[in-house]
């Protein structure tokens, strides 16, 4: 039987191992802080014991979730061709919810492989930057990118017919 991974499981798999280990260490550290260090120094100024455990557990989970989400942002920015270190630093420096929300609103679309050389290319690219393959159809008259359903080129007026992607970059001196 083949198991299909949910979208969430696939996305969580991109978190680097180091970030996951750091989250585990953070949970252990916060729990140790709330169980041993704070009670040792705080004498009688603590809330009742069950509430103190709840506060410690919630603090540990919040810190671990923050670390894991930051690790996810690092890996996600990397796979989208963005500056991963810059985004990680911004998310850490900007107050938490604002930094995370800003990343998810401003992130670039996923890169797709070039059909010819498999290099990562953006959705808005017309040509592959590595091999020069035309990713969108272009007019035979002027060489500009056109939509597949155009009957004539909106730039030069030449009849297009069935636009077929060309495999080379057009020479700008001939247009």
Could you walk me through the main structural features you see in this protein, from its secondary elements to its overall organization?
There is one protein chain. A two-stranded antiparallel ribbon has the order 1-2. It is rod-shaped. Strand 1 (112-113) and strand 2 form a beta hairpin. The chain is mainly α. The chain has five helices and two strands. It has two domains: 7-108, no CATH class; 111-175, no CATH class.
Blueprint (SSEs and pairs):
Elements: H1 7-12, H2 17-42, H3 49-79, H4 84-93, H5 96-106, E1 112-113, E2 120-121
Helix pairs in contact: 2-3, 3-4, 4-5
Brief write-up:
This protein is mostly helical and 175 residues long. The chain is 48% helix and 2% strand.
Structural class: mainly alpha
- State the order of secondary-structure elements, H for helix, E for strand: HHHHHEE
Placed side by side, the strands forming the largest sheet appear as 1-2
Spans of at least 5 consecutive residues whose pLDDT stays below 50 are none
Strand content: under 5%
CA distance, first residue to last residue: 57 Å
- Rounded to the nearest angstrom, the radius of gyration is 26 Å
Number of helices, where a helix is a run of at least 4 consecutive DSSP H or I residues: 5
Question: Largest sheet at a glance?
Answer: 2 strands, antiparallel
| Total domain units | 2
Say how many strands there are: 2
* Gross morphology: rod-shaped
């Amino acid at each position: 039987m083949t198991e299909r991974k949910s979208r969430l499981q696939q996305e969580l798999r991109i978190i680097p191992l180091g970030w996951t280990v750091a989250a585990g260490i953070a949970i252990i550290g916060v729990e140790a802080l709330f169980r041993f260090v704070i009670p040792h120094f705080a004498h009688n100024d603590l809330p009742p014991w069950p509430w103190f455990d709840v506060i410690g557990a919630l603090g540990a989970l919040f810190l671990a979730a923050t670390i894991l989400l930051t690790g996810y942002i690092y890996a996600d920015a990397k796979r989208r061709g963005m500056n991963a270190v810059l985004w990680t630093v911004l998310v850490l420096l900007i107050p938490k919810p604002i930094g995370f929300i800003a990343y998810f609103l401003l992130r670039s679309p996923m890169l797709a492989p070039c059909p010819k050389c498999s290099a990562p290319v953006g959705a808005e690219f017309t040509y592959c930057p590595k091999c020069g393959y035309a990713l969108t159809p272009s007019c035979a008259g002027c060489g500009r990118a056109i939509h597949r359903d155009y009957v004539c080129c909106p730039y030069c007026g030449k009849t297009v017919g069935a636009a077929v992607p060309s495999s080379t970059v057009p020479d700008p001196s001939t247009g």
